[in-house]
Design brief:
The structure holds two protein chains of two kinds. Chain A is built from two helices and five strands; from the N terminus they run ββαβαββ. By secondary structure, chain A is mainly beta. Chain A has a single domain, classed as SH3 type barrels. By secondary structure, chain B is of the alpha/beta class. Chain B has two domains: 41 residues, no CATH class; 159 residues, Nitrile Hydratase, Chain A (Alpha-Beta Complex). Chain B is built from twelve helices and four strands. The longest helix of chain B has 15 residues. The termini of chain B are far apart. Classes of the chains: A mainly beta, B alpha/beta. Chains A and B meet through strand 2 and strand 4 of A and helix 9 and strand 3 of B. Strand 4 of chain A pairs parallel with strand 3 of chain B.
């Protein structure tokens, strides 16, 4: 890839991740309802110019890794009125994600 | 294009809880700030000879020419060609390129398949991201705040308002199209369509099926002919 290439990927499908629970000002592509929630990486989507920079006329480089993360609806909405197996998938840029340590004890 | 004069009560809202057209943000007021600024920039660019009125017209014509007919062709091919379906689910863009359809390079397409146990529905909660290259312009309800805010929280209630009632054994997957991917729902081929041609099948596949708010219906007349 080119000099604007992304860093090495941090996550792989199946990894458990948490979306940052922060509210920085500016153009963000992470809906409020998903901040602070945890889910499983469903797939890797590729690397794209960072939309949070593109929005302000910068080149968005280096490109950022984008993942689709699958959340259980009952993890997002405590009062979710539906089966526990219903899900919501959305796209999250890597810099919004952190790993969830699995409790193996 | 501009339907602001149309009263926003045309849908005969039987469902007080779901008023798709109450999103006044999408009404176009040509005297508002952004429409005026857009028009001013357009005129300046034309005066400077950077763009022409005909070029603008041609682009609008191209945008309006895109429609869900393209999506229907993709779905029908997947129904009749299992190998194509597998390629489509694995890599939407590459599979569609096989069909020689124009303009799909512009999007990163993810195709999600409805099955007996999974039903998919697409939304963009942040704005109105939509696979325009294969479905044309999004309907007003897709852009409404009512749809965008509610389908993520209570998808089954929203689907029911569209006439789609799902058993609890079916997993509902909501796809929030919030970044760079675009989504196409691959509906299940309805029973009673055995032996139908690819072209006949394509006509069953409506826009709403490919967004996932409904499923393909075989017209009653066609069923009795069977």
């Amino acid at each position: 890839m080119n000099p604007a290439a992304a860093s090495q990927r941090r996550f792989a499908p199946g990894d458990r991740v948490t979306v940052a629970h922060t509210h920085p000002p500016g153009h963000r592509r992470i809906p409020y309802y998903i901040r602070g929630k945890s889910g499983l990486v469903e797939r890797y989507c590729g690397a794209f110019p960072n939309p949070e920079e593109l929005a302000y006329g910068f080149d968005g480089l280096p490109v950022r890794h984008l993942y689709r993360v699958r959340f259980q609806q009952t993890d997002i909405w405590p009062a979710y009125n539906g089966p526990t197996h219903d899900t919501l998938d959305l796209e999250v840029y890597e810099h919004w994600l952190s790993p969830v340590e699995e409790d193996v004890s | 294009m501009n339907d602001k004069a149309a009263p926003q009560h045309a849908e005969g809202h039987a469902h007080a809880i779901l008023r798709w057209s109450d999103d006044s943000a999408h009404d176009i007021d040509e005297t508002a700030h952004y429409p005026l600024m857009t028009e001013a920039i357009r005129q300046i660019l034309m005066e400077k000879g950077i763009i022409s009125a005909d070029a603008v017209r041609r682009l609008i014509e191209q945008m309006d020419a895109r429609s869900d007919v393209t999506g229907g062709k993709i779905v029908a091919r997947a129904w009749v060609d299992p190998a194509f379906k597998q390629r489509l689910l694995a890599n939407g863009n590459e599979a569609i390129a096989e069909l020689g359809l124009p303009e799909v390079d512009a999007i990163h397409l993810i195709v999600v398949e409805n099955t007996e146990t999974v039903h998919n529905v697409v939304v963009c909660t942040l704005c109105s991201c939509y696979p325009r290259a294969i479905l044309g312009m999004p309907p007003e309800w897709y852009k409404s705040k009512a749809y965008r805010s509610r389908v993520v929280i209570e998808p089954r209630v929203v689907l029911k308002a569209f006439g789609t009632t799902l058993a609890d054994t079916v997993t509902v997957r909501v796809h929030d199209s919030n970044a760079d991917m675009r989504y196409l729902v691959l509906p299940m081929r309805p029973p009673g369509t055995e032996g139908w041609s690819e072209d006949e099948l394509a006509h069953l596949v409506t826009r709403d099926c490919m967004v996932g708010v409904t499923v393909p219906q075989v017209p009653a007349k066609a069923q009795t002919v069977e």
